[in-house]
Amino acid sequence: MAKLPTELHRVEDIAYAEYLFDKFYGVGSTGSGGVTRLGYTEVEDEMHKVFQEIGEEDGYTYLTDEVGNSYLSNSESEHYYLIASHLDSVIEGGRYDGVAGVIAGLLVLHWIQEQNLTIPVRVGAFRCEESSNFGKCTIGSGLITNETYKHDIGEAISKAGKTLAEIFKERGLSLQPKRIRGVKQYLELHIEQGKVLEEFGDKLGIVSTIAGPKRFMLHIIGQAEHSGATPMDMRSDALCGAAEIINEIEDIGREESIWKSVVTVGVVQNEPNALNVIPGEVTLGVDMRGINTDSLERMEKRMKNAAKKICEKRGLTFYKEKISEIPPIDMSREMQESLSRVAMKLKLPHRIMMSGAGHDAMSFAHICDTAMLFIPCDKGVSHNKREFATIESICDGAIVMFEYLKGECQ
Questions:
Q1: How far apart are alpha carbons 204 and 342 in whole angstroms?
Q2: What phi and psi values does residue 111 have, to the nearest 5 degrees?
């Protein structure tokens, strides 16, 4: 498959990738032009059914595991390379997040079959990578790798009001599955979900580290009173206190950005949320991410101290609830170097870069050598109906993985 840059992709390769994309395109479509494919729902099931049908068309073996993940295999070997991503989406999301990685894996399988090579590969489609349905991410990959962060998640509640344990019981799945076996190496392609590759004109990103998220709920409690009858100097307004805290958190994030750390207040729950009532209680959802553990710890400490000081000044009560924490996860340095050499050979401009978003690859780094590739997405937009990546970019990433595997199996 290695060719000159002017003929990197054959017309038939682009056509096959477009065919695969079109197979998934309509599933979960919404009236706004996006898609909603929540984990462990009938719509996600339909995506996995399409995946199975594609495999049957090309003669691959279709497999499932104890948590509902799907796989297509070209070999009966007990040891194999796993190329995977996910098929679920956020609410009103785009069509490339996750799906691009599955298509890239299918392209690699297709080329191996076309050239009669004996490279044992499985393409995986993991369940419920997004946190949109249960408030927990990478459920399918986390469970099957026995990731410690996925212990005791049976009580997570779906948008429909069912617990994950109830859904698993209905589907005959297990919350305590055997750990996946036989994976030589794990590879994943994903849209960048950022603007770095596009801004620098690079065709490919090779991920060095996936940022570790820390997530909190900050509870600010004041006194709900009549907005007209309570004088300004006698108020305990939880929302005004929360506003100060939000600004302080943003300042903390800006100061720690030199360590590539970020922090976002993405949730504001205001009670009673009535026009004529002083806010009595506010809950803030805070998402911290970074690759430097010292920076993450500083941000947490500074956030707590700032919130405490602001609340004491305003006569408010404050407490912090940590809802999840995953450390930064490094990808295999050897695989990074090998993938970079392949990209150079193919004359594809690329860069080594971190991932600010979480991915299924996080689950595999503790059980096997793991690597991730990023491809550009238009204006960095993701988790949005305007999300877009070119078919050519998907093929760029796929051919790098294919040539890498050829080198590994020589």
A1: 11
A2: -70, -35
pLDDT at site 151? 74
pLDDT beyond 80 at 149:
no
Q: Report how far residue 314's alpha carbon sits from residue 294's, in angstroms, rounded to the nearest whole number.
A: 30
Q: Which of 131-135, 199-203, 330-334 has the lowest mean pLDDT?
A: 131-135
Name the nearest CA neighbour of 86 among 146, 132, 141, 33.
141
Q: Round to whole Å and give the CA distance between 221 and 14.
A: 57
Helices marked H in 233-349:
238-256, 293-314, 333-345
CA distance 222 to 213: 29
Distance CA 155, CA 158 (A): 9
Residue 141 and residue 183: Cα distance in Å, rounded? 13
Show the CA angle centred on residue 155, arms to residues 149 and 161, nearest 5°.
130
Does residue 6 register a pLDDT over 70? no
Note whether 185 and 339 are within 8 A (CB).
no
Cβ-contact 227, 277 below 8 angstroms: yes
Q: Give the pLDDT confidence of 277-315 residue by residue, as tens digits.
A: 999 999 999 999 999 999 999 999 999 999 999 999 999
Check residue 381 and report its DSSP letter: -
Number of helices and strands in the chain (H, E) = 11, 13
Residue 13: how many other CB atoms lie within 10 Å: 20
φ, ψ for residue 318, nearest 5 deg? -135, 140
- Half-sphere exposure of 148 toward its Cβ, with a 13 Å CA cutoff? 6
